[in-house]
Amino acid sequence: MKERLAKLKRIEALQSRLNQRADHELIRLQRSLADAQANRRDVMQVLNDECLAPVVVGFVSRRLKAIDSEIGQLTAAIAAQQAIALREAMRLKRAERSTGSAREACRAEDDRKALDEALESALLRREASFPPA
């Protein structure tokens, strides 16, 4: 029973690391999306500037297309990563429940063994002959 508990603890630790990795990747993608959106705002400000707009329209339009494409890719990647993070979180919860069940079973087995030993020692003491007084 203790070997099973040890295996389940290792599985739980692995699932925890996988869940953390998925969460970190999701956070990285969200930060990249925020950066791309900030870049888009900056480019739009340049385009809205009346002095610079006629000079840089060609460059700005190509840059906006590239940023919009990047935003679309990042949005799709975030949606996929959210599904992965959810799947990993569910796996972690299952591992935690399995470990908890095994821990309870191990504790119950230890309690039964302790009770059996206590009963046996009580019976042995009762059956022992007492020395004459």
Structure, explained:
With 133 residues, this protein is an all-alpha fold. The chain has helices spanning 2-48, 53-127. α1 packs antiparallel against α2 (53-127). 9% of the residues are buried. The model has no long low-confidence stretch (mean pLDDT 90). This is Flagellar FliJ protein. It comes from Ancylobacter radicis.
Keywords summarizing the entry:
2 helices
Topology summary:
Layout: H1 2-48, H2 53-127
Helix pairs in contact: 1-2
pLDDT averaged residue by residue: 90
What does the largest sheet look like? none
Content-based structural category: mainly alpha
Order of helices and strands: HH
Overall body shape: rod-shaped
Total DSSP helices: 2
Straight-line distance between termini: 48 Å
Poorly predicted spans:
none
Tell me the β content: under 5%
Number of strands: 0
Radius of gyration: 32 Å
Helix content: over 70%
